[in-house]
Amino acid sequence: MTRRTTHDLLAQANATLPDNTSELITAADVRAMVLDILDTLTPVYGGIGMTGSVPLALTSTPIILPFTLNIVEHPPDWVMDAAAGTLTRNVPASLPGVVSRFYLSGIFFGQANTDVTFQLFRNGAATPWRGVQAGRGTGRGVSAAFTIIDYTLDPVAVYDMRVSGVPSNNVTFQNVTFIGENIHLRANTPPPVAGGFHLGL
After folding, report:
1. Which value, in Å, is the radius of gyration of the alpha carbons in the chain?
2. pLDDT over 70 at 191, yes or no
3. Which of 16, 37, 118, 144 is a plausible cystine mate for 29, CB 3.0–4.6 Å?
4. How far apart are the first and last CA of the chain?
């Protein structure tokens, strides 16, 4: 089985599955086509989560949000490391790149008017995709959730979620999950806007 883009699957179908007026279609051709379609469309994802409460001293410098358990992974495409707070995404050799979608959701407790920023990092570098929520005071939890779509040609991409706070303050995080999944790639060329798409926090 080979994971392909939609464009490559169409080319494969045209090359190996003619109209059959000359009876050139073989059982092996059909089997290979079906298996490649199934492999291409099979969901591939991974995620890490947090049990209990995780207190952090936040400043304006982003730090990696730590997690406590691996929820699920589909190696080799996705490999999780909860302790390091990372999701590693590997591109299959049959694909030019991968479009990945990320979900983060959870609750945090922080002082009123402390702005908590969540930002996605790829291979140690900040991406443009981030969201900001303000604390509401002692004992008042704030729900944070957002979705990001990111495209990269990097054969290996290590993602983490980093948090910062302004002004500096102690913030406690609870029940946070960080999940990544691959979206089926249509063609061998990048989308019009490379990098990502922030849907909201």
Report:
1. 21
2. no
3. 16
4. 38
Summarize the confidence of residues 81-104 as an average pLDDT. Answer: 89
Residue 67 has pLDDT above 90, yes or no: yes
Of the two residues 89 and 37, the one the predictor is more confident about is 89
Report d(CA 198, CA 14) in Å as an integer.
Answer: 37
Identify residue 156 by its one-letter amino acid code: V
DSSP string, the chain: -----HHHHHHHHHHH----TT----HHHHHHHHHHHHHHHS--EEEEE--SEEEEEE-SS-EEPP-SEEEE--TTTEEEETTTTEEEEE--TTSS-EEEEEEEEEEEE--TTPEEEEEEEETTEEEEEEEEEE---TT--EEEEEEEEEEE--SEEEEEEEEEEES-EEEEEEEEEEEEEEE---SSS--SS-S-EEEE-
CA distance linking residue 108 with residue 141, whole number of Å: 6
* pTM to 2 decimal places: 0.82
User: Distance (Å, rounded) from C-alpha 65 to C-alpha 43?
Assistant: 26
Residue whose structure tokens are 């983060």: 104
Average pLDDT over the chain, rounded to whole? 85
